[in-house]
Design brief:
Strand order of the largest sheet: 3-2-1-4-10-6-11
Distance between the termini: 97 Å
Structural class: alpha/beta
Helix content: 40-55%
CATH architecture of the largest domain: Alpha-Beta Complex
Number of domains: 2
Shape: extended
CATH superfamily of the largest domain: Spore Coat Polysaccharide Biosynthesis Protein SpsA, Chain A
Strand content: 15-25%
Bound molecules: uridine-5'-diphosphate-glucuronic acid, manganese (II) ion
């Protein structure tokens, strides 16, 4: 019986096999098509040119997002820093002046600032007009920036032969930056943001900007390699009423009893607070070493300072100073009419 049935089927199959084969091919063809629908190339094949290029862009952007996420992760930067459109902007004011190392200094800063979301760089040249070098540099930087100039009058300019403490530096340039901010936010009663004074020769870490981002009044932190010691830092104690921590003084090698014994790199100011205090600016007549202290005295009381960087136990900025470039041979070549930087910007 079984034998008979199999024999019968075989016979029928022999008759029907061409039809079965065609059916099989049709089924395979159908599923192949369905699978291809899911692959991007086939999706792109089935749409018009306009949608195709848009979709290609979307795929490319998705790839970039994945890459950027992994970069953020490797720097331990919280992702929300980048996705929060309401992030307070950090206005970084940098005085700068022309000398052989200028572009190198600005490049070091740019490289860090590019990693910081919502940063607006206000670069103020100590010059009677904006230079080509800085203009071109900023234009191609990829940063949001404002380019200003404010010359230091001759009598306040440091001479090459002067020791660097003889006259304050960057004073009028920082004030020009503050003035620009006052004008920009003239109509706004409570603008969100933070102001930081970043000299062009220091070394800044990415973490520093995360620390200062949400400053309510004035925030402070340690500064490495400054004031002839390894580190200058605020002294932090538990608040007597148990309300967190507060700054009670300063650990520095030189004059720790200054009301605010911090370097320029060691604090950031809430934008609204700075703008509210209409007289807050830097003064050329501040006593030597009191530039920062006098400025902050117009803004806060010591116990209102916000200690950052793990209660001032971490160093995220260093007051490095760049060696003056030796131009001995350059000067000789210049005198001979053969400067090495002819037709090339350094
Ligand atoms: C220290 C502080 O870190 C500065 O913030 C402070 O302004 C300075 O002392 C001071 O007492 O005036 P230091 O490294 O000695 O800094 O100063 P520089 O880095 O030489 O100058 C501070 C800023 O002013 C820099 O961004 C620099 O580019 C700029 N600068 C300097 C000018 O704009 N014009 C100049 O003629 C010299
Ligand atoms: Mn410096």
């Amino acid at each position: 019986m079984v034998y008979f049935n199999l024999y019968f089927l075989k016979r029928r199959a022999r008759k029907w096999w061409p039809y079965l084969a065609i059916l099989l091919l049709l089924i395979i063809g159908y599923y192949e098509g369905v699978f291809h629908q899911f692959s991007s190339s086939s999706v792109l094949d089935s749409v018009d040119d306009q949608s195709r290029s848009t979709m290609k862009e979307v795929f490319a952007l998705q790839r970039q997002v994945r890459l950027l996420r992994s970069v953020l992760k490797s720097y331990s930067i919280p992702e929300r820093e980048y996705s929060d459109v309401l992030l307070p902007t950090i206005y970084v004011i940098t005085p700068t002046y022309a000398r052989p190392v200028q572009k190198a200094e600005l490049t070091r800063l740019k490289t860090v600032f590019l990693h910081v979301p919502a940063l607006h760089w206000i670069v103020v040249e100590d010059a009677s007009q904006n230079s080509q070098l800085v203009s071109n540099f900023l234009k191609s930087s990829g940063l949001t920036y404002t380019h200003l100039h404010q010359p230091t009058p001759d009598e306040w300019k440091l001479k090459d032969s002067d020791p660097n403490w003889r006259k304050p530096r960057g004073v009028l340039q920082r004030n020009a930056g503050i003035k620009w901010l006052r004008r920009k936010f003239m109509q706004e009663s409570n603008p969100r943001g933070v102001v930081y004074f970043a000299d062009d020769d220091n070394t800044y870490s990415i973490e520093l900007f995360q620390e200062m981002r949400h400053t309510q009044t004035v925030s402070v932190w340690p500064v490495g390699l400054v004031g002839d010691v390894m580190v200058e830092r605020p002294q932090v104690s538990v608040h007597p009423k148990g309300e967190g921590h507060q700054v009670t003084g300063w650990l520095t090698g030189w004059k720790p009893n200054r009301p605010f014994a911090t370097d320029m790199a060691g604090f950031a100011v809430n934008l609204a607070l700075l703008l509210k205090k209409s007289k807050a600016e830097f003064s050329l007549s501040s006593q030597r070493g009191f530039l920062e202290s006098d400025f902050l005295g117009n803004l806060v009381k010591l116990n209102n300072l916000e200690p950052k960087a793990e209660l001032c136990t971490m160093v995220y900025v260093w007051h490095t100073r760049t060696e003056k470039a030796n131009m001995k041979h350059e000067e000789r070549l210049r005198r001979a009419g053969k400067p090495t930087d002819e037709g090339i910007e350094v």
